[in-house]
Specification:
Layout: H1 15-18, H2 24-29, E1 39-40, H3 52-63, H4 76-90, E2 99-102, H5 104-116, E3 122-127, H6 131-139, E4 143-148, E5 150-151, E6 157-158, H7 161-166, E7 172-178, H8 190-203, E8 206-210, E9 237-242, E10 255-258, H9 264-274, H10 280-292, H11 294-316, E11 321-324, E12 331-336, H12 343-354, E13 356-357, E14 359-360, E15 372-375, H13 380-398
Organism: Salinicola endophyticus
Domain Aminotransferase class I/classII large: 41-390
Keywords: Aminotransferase, Pyridoxal phosphate, Transferase
Length: 406
């Protein structure tokens, strides 16, 4: 793709921005964004509408004229609702003043990085990882240090903590953990969370915990544990989250950061200078989501589990496919043996041959090059349709491809 910045302007533009790679998920999606015949499984977004009580709350707030500047850090009512929500689901007391409402989970990660990084600081990140988090490190002047997950022939994904710790240098500032993980579906064991907490305490490192998918854990095992349960209020811990996934509010652009006690003023400034705050009518809708949305979360989890099981069982039956059954999230990471080309080329080929849109694993870093990702936050009937399109084509490749290790 040609450079998007005209040559005459390049000397005057930020080198950090010029060096950002294209988002390969968008590259695939743009090939068939307006083709209604495509089963779109490329982007991490559920296919249900935002629940009516949440929509109604925003409409009522708009009609009441709640459209002016408000609290930059979030309304007191919303921050109290966030505190109550964490107490209800994780049995943890988090003071309302520790919450900072953000413009989605993306802005939450941006502010977390801005709050702690200086030029040249390193952030260690298990990879493949959400590409946005990696690029935020660079935009903030930091250096991303990838530590690869281990992919096993039996379909398991693990993270070697000793390898993670060995990557620490004198320039390391933070370790970024997304658990459950996009794109792999890996979930950090509780014992490893404790080891990481103790390691970071001893060395004065920050933990940035992206806990967006904590509810999306299956077979009755959820929610996933939170670092907030393991850490003190003054530990070097920043937790980022979003309203997007739990309540199908991706377009509302609202999320939150939990900061240590004593950093509230710093995050209030970051809000003021980044965004001036989230729209007040959106904050009212978010409050209703927290207060009334538990049943909807449970419905989503059950629906995702049904779709996950359909896709896992169908793809596992193919000799030339290795499936990494997710421990959490609503993503399925898999490898097709015998599908030629790069990960991006494979995703494009599947789109053209089957009309199923998937994300290339390389979108999440070079560690994901051999893999593809499916979002299964969809109706089970749509999962069956995707499988009906994928399986016949993938089966044609198996005659010339080596079998996947079993």
């Amino acid at each position: 793709m040609p450079d998007v910045i005209p040559a005459a302007l390049q000397p005057f533009s930020s080198s950090r921005v010029r060096e950002m790679p294209d988002n390969q998920i968008v590259t695939v999606a743009d090939l068939a964004r307006h083709d209604d015949s495509v089963v779109r499984l490329w982007i991490g977004e559920g296919d249900l509408p935002t629940p009516a009580p949440i929509r109604d709350a925003a409409i009522a707030a708009l009609e009441a004229g709640d459209t002016r500047y408000g609290y930059s850090q979030g309304t007191p009512d919303l921050r109290q609702a966030l505190s109550d929500y964490h107490r209800r689901h994780w049995d943890v007391e988090v003071a309302p003043e520790r919450f900072c409402v953000s413009i989605g989970g993306m802005n939450a990660v941006v502010m977390a990085m801005q709050a702690i990084l200086d030029e040249g600081d390193e952030v260690i990140m298990p990879s493949p990882a959400w590409p946005n988090a990696k690029q935020v490190v660079a935009i903030c002047g930091g250096v991303n240090v990838a530590v690869a997950f281990d992919f096993h022939d039996d379909g398991a994904i693990t993270l070697d903590l000793d390898a993670l710790f060995a990557a620490v240098t004198e320039r390391t500032r933070a370790i970024f953990i997304n658990s459950p993980s996009n794109p792999t579906g890996w979930r950090m064991p509780l014992a490893d969370m404790r080891r990481l907490r103790d390691f970071c305490r001893e060395r004065g490192l920050w933990i940035i915990a992206d806990e967006v998918y904590n509810h999306f854990v299956y077979d009755g095992q959820g929610p996933a544990p939170s670092f907030l349960q393991l850490c003190e209020a003054t530990d070097r811990l920043l937790v980022t989250n979003t309203f997007s996934k739990n309540w199908c509010m991706t377009g509302w652009r609202a999320g939150w950061v939990v900061c240590p006690l004593g950093m509230e003023t710093l995050f209030a400034r970051l809000c003021q200078y980044n965004t001036t705050g989230v729209a007040p009518f959106v904050q009212r809708a978010c409050q209703v989501a927290l207060e009334t949305g538990d049943e909807f979360i449970a419905h989503q989890i059950a629906r995702c589990q049904a779709s996950r099981d359909i896709l896992v069982q169908g793809l596992e039956a193919l000799d030339n496919v290795t499936v990494f059954t997710p421990q959490g999230t609503f993503y399925l990471f898999f490898k097709v043996h015998g599908l030629p080309g790069t990960s991006l080329e494979r995703a494009v080929q599947l789109l053209r041959e089957t009309k199923v849109g998937v994300a290339p694993g390389s979108a999440f870093g070079p560690e994901g090059e051999d893999y593809l990702r499916i979002c299964f936050a969809i109706a089970p009937t749509l999962a069956e349709e995707a499988l009906a399109r994928l399986v016949p084509y993938l089966r044609t490749l198996s005659a010339v491809a080596p079998s996947a290790p079993r």
